Amino acid sequence: MTWRKRPLFRFFQALLLGGLIHLAAADELPRIVVAMPGPNVAPYLPLELVSRLGADRKAGFVLSVRHFGGGPLAVKDMIERNSDFAALGMPALAGVWLTNPELVSIAALTQSPAYVLMARQDLKKRVRKPADLRGRGIGAHSGSKQGKSTARQIAEYLLMRNGVSGDEVNFIHAGQNLADYSAALRSGLVDAIVVNEPAATLLETNRLAWRLADLHDPTVARQQLGGRFLYTQLASTRETLQSQPDKARRLTLALRNTLRWMATHSAREIVARLQLPDGEEKQAMERFLSRHKNIYSPDGAFDQEAVRNSEAFFHAVSGGDPAAARLRYADLIDSRWSGR
């Protein structure tokens, strides 16, 4: 009996040893840390999917994500060297860049502003257009000391385009998640709110707010912002790019492969990879993606129309700040890994 068991024992021993070697090899992969809003905020989904698709390991690293309540907080985490990269809105990055010129944008995630301006449901008969928000409270991410959030900039721009100056409304911090948004609307703290998806779909489904201006719609984006728009992007610092360029190369490669996968797969397939629990959020995310999957960059490259419109937007919302007026996005874009 002993001699019969010996080959079987050796077989399982080899399997175990092989598994341990595989795990050890995986542990040796470099770790790349990205700070970003989330989790599961639509404009940042490509980065949520990188590890779920195995695109990070295929590119030779392990992705670690740190979630924050907004882009300015994410870039602050990167500046403080807690993360290697940060994902946030390009207008928000530009605002921070004015005092932190070591920041660099290396890849695009979206080609649409991807925000919705929503009015409280019970105001539907009184608020029919953005100009009707004059004198009212607007909920938006407030950003941080490091910079104004893109949501706040979007709200200011839409109001300005409709003849309402920033000092004619009251901007209110309305939280960073669906529960906060819902509470602000139910309590009457805000009359309108600027949110991403899937929060917009969920607020609409629960009849708390309705869409006053949906910038996911290409027609609306063209009317308000001129067309394609560089919104969410991946940022780093010049020091990181100089000292660890391979991290930037590997992360950009994984991101571009993920964006290409998203472009060729259905909303249902994308949501399945996100592994969201069954419920309203999962359904809302699938409904959103089935309508507006085209908000994402197809390959991470910097589209010149999107760059131009985003830069013009930043100048418009910067209130005549001379430093902002001089800024050109070309000064903070490094496209060597993503392309233009």
Question: What is the element layout, followed by pairings?
Answer:
Blueprint: H1 2-27, E1 31-37, H2 45-52, H3 55-58, E2 62-68, H4 71-79, E3 85-89, H5 90-97, E4 103-108, E5 116-120, E6 137-139, H6 150-161, E7 170-172, H7 178-187, E8 192-195, H8 199-205, E9 209-214, H9 218-225, E10 232-237, H10 238-243, H11 245-263, H12 267-274, H13 280-292, H14 304-317, H15 322-326
Parallel strand pairs: 1-2, 1-3, 6-7, 6-8
Antiparallel strand pairs: 3-10, 4-10, 5-8, 5-9
H/E element sequence: HEHHEHEHEEEHEHEHEHEHHHHHH
Mean pLDDT: 90
What is the chains' assembly state? single chain
Q: CATH topology of the largest domain, what is it called? A: D-Maltodextrin-Binding Protein, domain 2
Q: What is the helix fraction of residues, given as a range?
A: 40-55%
CATH architecture of the largest domain: 3-Layer(aba) Sandwich
Radius of gyration: 22 Å
Structure description:
This protein has 340 residues and is of the alpha/beta class. The protein folds into two domains: 9-110 and 229-332, D-Maltodextrin-Binding Protein, domain 2, CATH 3.40.190; 116-214, D-Maltodextrin-Binding Protein, domain 2 (3-Layer(aba) Sandwich). The protein is built from 15 helices and ten strands. The protein has helices spanning 2-27, 45-52, 55-58, 71-79, 90-97, 150-161, 178-187, 199-205, 218-225, 238-243, 245-263, 267-274, 280-292, 304-317, 322-326, and strands at 31-37, 62-68, 85-89, 103-108, 116-120, 137-139, 170-172, 192-195, 209-214, 232-237. The strands form two sheets. It has a five-stranded mixed beta sheet, with helices on both faces. Strand 6 (137-139), helix 6 (150-161) and strand 7 (170-172) form a beta-alpha-beta unit. The longest helix is centred in the first third of the chain and has 26 residues, at 2-27. It is globular and about 75 Å long. Residues 1-5 and 20-24 have low confidence and may be disordered.
